[in-house]
Description:
It is built from 13 helices and twelve strands. It has about 400 residues and is α/β, with parallel strands linked by helices.
Amino acid sequence: xxSLSEKVDRIEESQTIAITSLAKKLRAEGKKIISLSxxxxxxPTPENVKQAAIKAINDNFTKYTQNEGTPELREAVAxxxxxxxxxxxxxxxxxxxxxxxxxxxxxxxTICNPGDEVIIPAPYWVSFPEMxxxxxxxxxxxxxxxxxxxxxxxxDLRPLLTQKTKALIINSPSNPTGSVxxxxxxxxxxxxxxxxxxxxxxxxxxxxxxxxxxxxxxxxSIPEVxxxxxxxxxxxxxxxxxxxxxxxxxxxxxxxxxxSKIQSQLTSNASSxxxxxxxxxxxxxxxxxxxxxxxxxHRRDVMMERLSGIDGMTLAKPGGAFYFFPSxxxxxxxxxxxxxxxxxxDIASYLLLEAQVALVPGAAFGSDxxxxxxxxxxxxxxxxxxxxxAAAVTKLR
Length: 397
Ligand SMILES: Cc1ncc(COP(=O)(O)O)c(C=O)c1O
C-alpha cells in the first residue's frame, strides 16, 4: 500500500493514554479510582446558558451561521475583550471557533511558514508543540524554573531568538503550572516582540480563574503590540462549558480574515446552538463565574496545605487555573519492594496502582520530574486522594 502522511508520524500521541487505559482497567475490576486528571471544571454549565441553548433549538436556530460566528456573538466577544481585557477591538477583529484549541490552531496556521520557529515556554500545555508542528513550523522550548514559579522574562527569551523566530506562545494562567505572568513581565515581552519583530499568541483560556486578588493582564492591550498579538480565549473554563466547543480569537483584521478562510474550508461555523449559549454566557449574569473562582481558590488552599506535607514532593503555589504541578524528583530511585521509580510516568503508574489515584505524568507537559494534579473536583474527593497519595509515598524506600 502507498505510504501515509509523514506529518502525522512527527506528532506525539497523547502521553496520558497509557495512564487513562490503566485507570479504566482498574475501574472495570471494581477498584475505587479517584481521577485527578481532567482539565475541566466539575460544575454544571450555568442554568441561564443551558436555557439559552434550549431556546435556540426550539427557535430552530439550527442551521449554518456566518463562518466567523454570528454578528451578535462576535460583538459580545469584542465587548468582553474591551471590558475585561482592555483590547482595542471591534467585531471584525473576532473569529469564533470550535473551542479555544481550534482558535490556537487557526492562529498558528495563519502566521507560520515552513521552517519558522515558535517559542514555547515549558512546562507547556500538551497541544502547543504538536500544533506548531502541524503548521510546518518548529517548536523551540524555553525551560522555565520551578524556583522562579515557572515564570520567565524577556531576557530569558533573548538567547532563543533567531531570524526564523515567528512567534511566542504565552499561557497565563498556565496549564499545567498555574503560574501567572505579571504585567511588568508582559510589558517587557511586548517591548522585545516589537524590537525583534515576532508575533505573540496569548492563550488566556484560564483568565477568569485567578487568585489572591490578582487581576489578569492581557498583553494585547498594549497599544504598541496590539497588531502582533493574537489573543485566544473561550467559554470552556470560565463558564464550565468544555463540551460546547466555543473558543474565540481577537487579532488584527488581516489575521482574522485569513484564519477565517482556513476555518471556512475545515469546519465552517461553530455550532449555532453553542453560539447562542455562549452569547448568553457572555451577556448574562456573571455570578457563577465568580462562585466557581472562589471555590477553586478554596480548594487550592486546602490542597496546598495537604500536598506540602508530603515528604518527597515540592510544589510552587499556583496563582491561577486549577492544577498543581509538584516535583517528584526526590522520589526517583525509590521503590515499594517492586519496580524502582525512574520518571514521571513511573510515579503516575505507582500512584494509580498503590493509591488508586489517577493523575498525569509531567512528561506530557515537557517536564519529566513533575506530575500534574487537577483540583477541579469536590473537596471530599480531593482530600481523600491526597491522603491516599501521602500513604503510598510513605511506603517508598
Ligand atoms: C492551556 C489551554 N489552552 C486551551 C485549551 C482548550 O480549550 P477548549 O476546550 O476551549 O478547546 C485548554 C484545555 O484544556 C488548555 O488547557
